[in-house]
């Protein structure tokens, strides 16, 4: 789907629930884009994922299901597309609501110009009455039937000021898509079924085929077996014998709508259709005069002269049983006879010098009209020609175009709206891609800067700075936190016995292991020092009731992980000593150019003294830490009175393990 649909979802979720809620929904959905690009294509599942995330974030508050949010998104889109001027198309799409419903496919086809890869669904109506109708919805997507309901009901309310009751009568889902039938109840008093009198006026006369195809010389008839049964003179002159009697899909490619070119489809279409010829047009010049040239060529003038030819034009007209020129009334019986009509207004080229020049394929635009009485489809169309140059390349003449539309006027005046608009559209798409690439690069740089910032200070503190707080405002007093120091024993001797690179490799390996453990136990790695000292703290800057337990568990895991570390040369096992203390601290950012998150207080010194008086592969803890741990299932052992620098003798303990 295109970004405009997701833009509408984002806009109204922000408007109704706020930026923070949208940020949470975006995080749960994994959306990296900060801005949806209008003409960029996104996954069809993205809107469904947003609805599911909205339920997780807002479910308790709104009591809405994901289906309810999908329907809400449908109403959002109708309100949102007025920002792009599409509300004007809805306002003029039909005098009555039922007219709008019958023309939805046509609106989608008009939008395909701005959104060339649009995979629009198909809508058609049946069983219309004064109280409503049945609306059929076919799509390659599944999961959007409530989205359609939101759109339809919002259009009825917003543009036609009527209330529509809508329910699903049938919903079929296959690998190729879905087919949903809605029952719409609304005031459809504009519906007037045709009366028998209006259908059986005796003096009505059938229009002859010759007269009709003279008025519409590029039109043709298609039978249920998809063969071209009859065609206008201009079309036959340009395509020759490949036209009548052949399958229409062998002669033309369906450009619009982008659906299967089948009999069942063309019977029900109520949209503008475009066909592009699969074969080049035949330039047959029955006159020795050259055709109208667009511009004077610089070079060989003979290039524009036609070859001499003795083409003979033969036109056979079929008469009906009464001897008059065949009419639409005779089509049905003629079609089922043993001699099918294959030449009514068809121009046949013959002669000894048939050397027609080839050119660009013909491009037709018009409407497929099903003639129920004759069980055929009439393609009423005219060629799409934007310039005199294109007429010359196609082998078409001004006389082939009719005056009842603007074809002649557009060609003669040189109006070329289509290429200019396509160029503008391509530029817009290119700019959208450039914007998306810039946003992706910006997002990558933002993530890198955030990761770097989170390494310098805790995430909670960094978020406060991002919200505009000053560094000094982050300073706080914490009544109770847990601090741990660990140290690689005999580190000085190790440095003296091995090369500097071996020292760096050893310390890096150890610290990477400790970093994984800090993430596992959700404790904050405060700092690492060059002499292989590692410090963590818990309860800062996010206050926690149980902050000692994760630190104690991490200390036990450190002892287990160090048993895999060996001396680079002697390969003997290495040891660490650990000290843990629980107490109050003050914490906050210090500095502005190079801010650093620091801890202040006697508790930091106490933890450091416990580490320096510890023993290899032992965890030395204070009395306050011991009292907290014994209540939550950890084993401790009284060490005795230990002399701590600056504190005197104090009761300390060993952390042994868990109960």
From TrEMBL:
Signal peptide as annotated in the record: none
Record region (Disordered): 285-311
GO cellular component, one term: guanylate cyclase complex, soluble
Positions of the Guanylate cyclase domain: 482-611
Subcellular location: Cytoplasm
Compositional bias ranges of the Basic and acidic residues kind: 299-311
Gene Ontology BP term (one): response to oxygen levels
Stored CDD domains: CHD
UniProt-recorded name of the protein: guanylate cyclase
Main location per the UniProt record: cytoplasm
InterPro entries: A/G_cyclase (IPR001054), H-NOX_domain_sf (IPR038158), Heme_NO-bd (IPR011644), HNOB_dom_associated (IPR011645), HNOB_dom_associated_sf (IPR042463), NO_sig/Golgi_transp_ligand-bd (IPR024096), Nucleotide_cyclase (IPR029787)
Superkingdom of the source species: Eukaryota
Coiled coil: 425-455
Gene source species: Pocillopora meandrina
UniProt xrefs under SUPFAM superfamilies: Ligand-binding domain in the NO signalling and Golgi transport (SSF111126), Nucleotide cyclase (SSF55073)
Keyword annotations from UniProtKB, A to Z: cGMP biosynthesis, Coiled coil, Cytoplasm, GTP-binding, Lyase, Nucleotide-binding
EC number: 4.6.1.2
A GO molecular-function descriptor: guanylate cyclase activity
């Amino acid at each position: 789907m295109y970004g405009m649909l997701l833009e509408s979802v984002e806009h109204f979720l922000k408007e109704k629930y706020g930026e923070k809620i949208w940020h949470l929904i975006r995080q749960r959905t994994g959306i990296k884009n900060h801005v949806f690009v209008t003409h960029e294509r996104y996954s069809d599942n993205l809107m469904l994922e947003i609805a599911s995330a909205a339920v997780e974030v807002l479910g308790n508050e709104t009591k809405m299901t994901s289906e309810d949010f999908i329907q809400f998104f449908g109403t959002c889109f109708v309100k949102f597309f007025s920002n792009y001027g599409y509300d004007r198309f809805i306002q003029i799409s039909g005098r009555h609501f039922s007219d709008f419903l019958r023309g939805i496919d046509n609106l989608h086809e008009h939008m395909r110009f701005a959104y060339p890869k649009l995979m629009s669904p198909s809508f058609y109506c049946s069983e219309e009455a004064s109280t409503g109708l049945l609306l059929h919805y076919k799509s390659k997507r599944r999961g959007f039937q409530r989205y359609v309901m939101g759109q339809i009901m919002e259009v009825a309310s917003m543009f036609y000021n009527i209330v529509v009751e809508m329910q699903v009568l049938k919903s079929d889902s296959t690998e190729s898509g879905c087919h949903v039938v809605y029952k719409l109840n609304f005031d459809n008093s504009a519906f007037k079924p045709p009366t028998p009198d209006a259908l059986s006026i005796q003096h009505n006369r059938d229009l002859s085929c010759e007269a009709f195809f003279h008025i519409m010389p590029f039109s043709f008839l298609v039978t249920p077996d998809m063969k071209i049964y009859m065609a206008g003179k201009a079309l036959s002159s340009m395509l020759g014998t490949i036209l009548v009697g052949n399958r229409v899909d062998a002669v033309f490619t369906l450009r619009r709508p982008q659906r299967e070119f089948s009999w069942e489809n063309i019977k029900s279409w109520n949209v503008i259709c475009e066909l592009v010829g699969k074969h080049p047009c035949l330039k047959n010049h029955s006159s020795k005069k050259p055709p109208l040239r667009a511009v004077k060529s610089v070079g060989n003038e003979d290039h524009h002269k036609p070859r001499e030819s003795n083409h003979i034009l033969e036109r056979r007209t079929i008469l009906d049983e009464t001897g008059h020129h065949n009419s639409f009334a005779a089509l049905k019986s003629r079609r089922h006879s043993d001699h099918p009509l294959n030449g009514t207004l068809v121009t046949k080229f013959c002669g000894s010098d048939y050397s027609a020049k080839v050119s660009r394929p013909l491009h037709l635009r018009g409407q497929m009209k099903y003639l129920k009485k004759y069980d055929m489809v009439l393609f009423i169309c005219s060629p799409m020609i934007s310039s005199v140059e294109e007429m010359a390349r196609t082998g078409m003449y001004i006389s082939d175009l009719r005056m009842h539309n603007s074809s002649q006027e557009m060609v003669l005046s040189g109006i070329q709206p289509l290429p200019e608009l396509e160029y503008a559209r391509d530029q817009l798409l290119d700019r959208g891609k450039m914007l998306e690439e810039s946003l992706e690069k910006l997002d990558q740089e933002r993530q890198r800067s955030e990761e770097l910032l989170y390494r310098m200070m805790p995430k909670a503190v960094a978020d406060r700075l991002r919200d505009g707080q000053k560094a000094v405002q982050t300073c706080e007093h914490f009544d109770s936190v847990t601090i741990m120091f660990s140290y690689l024993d005999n580190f000085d001797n190790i440095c003296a016995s091995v090369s500097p690179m071996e020292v760096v490799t050893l310390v890096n390996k150890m610290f990477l292991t400790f970093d994984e453990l800090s993430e596992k136990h959700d404790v904050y790695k405060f700092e690492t020092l060059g002499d292989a000292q590692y410090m963590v703290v818990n309860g800062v800057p996010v206050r926690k009731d149980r902050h000692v337990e994760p630190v104690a568990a991490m200390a036990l895991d450190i002892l287990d992980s160090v048993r895999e570390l060996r001396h680079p040369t002697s390969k003997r096992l290495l040891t660490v000593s650990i000290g843990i203390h629980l107490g109050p601290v003050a914490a906050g950012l210090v500095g502005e150019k190079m801010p650093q998150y620091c801890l202040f207080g006697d508790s930091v010194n106490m933890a450091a003294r416990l580490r320096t008086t510890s023993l290899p592969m032992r965890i030395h803890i204070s009395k306050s830490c011991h009292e907290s741990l014994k209540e939550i299932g950890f084993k401790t052992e009284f060490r005795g009175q230990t002399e701590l620098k600056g504190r005197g003798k104090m009761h300390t303990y060993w952390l042994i393990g868990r109960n």
